[in-house]
Amino acid sequence: MGRLPLSQSYTAGLTQSNSQNSGLSLMSPGDTPHEIAAPRARVPFSSPLANGRLTEPRNYAPRTSGQPIQSLPPPRFNLNLESIPAVSENIPQETSQDPFGSPAPSDATSLIPFPNLPPPTVQMAMLDNTQLDRAMEMALIKANAPKSDKLHQLTGTYTGFPSLHMALNANYFPFIDGPSSAKPVTYGVIRLKNIPFSTKRAEVVAFIGRNSKMLNDADEPVHIIMDRATSKTMDAFVEFQTMEDAIRCAERHHQFAQSGRVSRLGDRPIEVELSSQAALMRELYPLARGVFWDGATPNILPPCSREPWGNFKGFISCEEMVMLVKHVEVPHRSPFSKECPQRPYECLISTLGKFPWFATDFITLAQRGAMYKASFKLIRLLTGAVSRNDDPVNLNHQLFRRVVASVMKCKGFTVLQKDNIAFLVQMGQAEMRMYHQPENASSWVHQYSVTAKPGCPQDVLDWYIRIIREQSTRDVLVRPISERTAIQETLKDTDEYWGYFFQEVGYTQGPDFDYMTLKQCAFLEFSAIERLLTRALGHH
């Protein structure tokens, strides 16, 4: 009799079902040509055809290696949170714990992420001083970062906290007023008149000579003045290390002119004369009315009611910065900028580098915001031009690095503004440290004047911010629930790295905030820091 096909050899006359098919799939098929010569291997489990009957297949789920199968009852629901004794010695110790019980009590400084508990920042604020100090030490151990000497000195007391006098000491206090840290300079200056409108910075450097003791290239000694309204190139100024160096350079070119050797820049004869910081500042900020420049230091004249148009309204206007960007965005409407595309970027470098940021009484947040927006847009435009290789001669990587460096070195910009620029250009952490940017710079949201002191250890900075964060959180927790809820809702829309520092500062909103001066911001922020440290450390 002929052999039945495989599809009929096991299922002839039987009703097909999924369970039967699943069982049949585990049976060995009949002899196949490549198995005839070899003996059939024994199936290690009972066949579904045992005793000539078809049944539901057994459960072939894998067993735990080395563990016998035991039919144990489910664990009891233990309301006393006591562990259930082991039923068998073969069961591992961890399986004898009640799976329905609460977890074992953890360290006092650990934060349990249950949804009904406050956020970790609030939990940390609820801990006492001993637990807070221990939590800080545990965080340092996890980060594998040993304490710096200054932090050891701060926390190396009996209580683990310094006195208020020690915390406010300038040797340990890690914050400074960024704009006020800028200082006026007294460099020597010469002026180049009647230069070609397409003059490049490298041509000016070659004309002066590198042996003439100009400032270093990183200090941007060359300032080619551009009219921000028309983008027309005006005169050029060059800064020297001392006034004597500038005098020698001007005298040398004066002697050349007397001997008949006219100084030329390109094909055009130019004039070289001794100048001053005051003349340079007047040319860089021509719309600054009501100000007398004493070198690089501005002296604001008292307002005159009879001539209000001559009163001081700022060193630079928002419209000037908008026009500076427009020359790059719409170059076909600026014939001078079209022929010299690098000039707006060089104008930005000089504007930021020479701006009198130390005069915080006369600089508003709106004016600084306009300068920052222009810087951000110009860097973004230059990034696209360099990546597309639009003009490799004028818009190159060297110009890009100069613009980025001038923004990151700017004393007037906040930590967050510089962090935005660093993110835009994909700057690495090591390079950001070169510009004295702290860690977690993106969390300095409400610091409009306070910056990190250059050279301050990062762990000292983190320690002060932690004290500010926890003390401000405690202050909010003791408020009535109606006030506390409103403040906590505000924190959800901002960063909590500094805690409720913004609540302690109490900035206003709206136009009044835009017209605040940098000095007013510094006063509010440093006063808030002092109050928080006084409440946190006043009893130590």
Automatic annotation (TrEMBL):
What organism is listed for this UniProt entry? Fusarium vanettenii (strain ATCC MYA-4622 / CBS 123669 / FGSC 9596 / NRRL 45880 / 77-13-4)
Judging by the UniProt lineage, the source's domain of life is Eukaryota
- Polar residues: bias regions: 1-25
State any single GO MF term.
nucleic acid binding
What are the TM regions of this chain, as residue ranges?
none
Region annotated Disordered sits at 1-79, 91-114
The protein's name is: RRM domain-containing protein
Q: Which InterPro entries match?
A: Nucleotide-bd_a/b_plait_sf, RBD_domain_sf
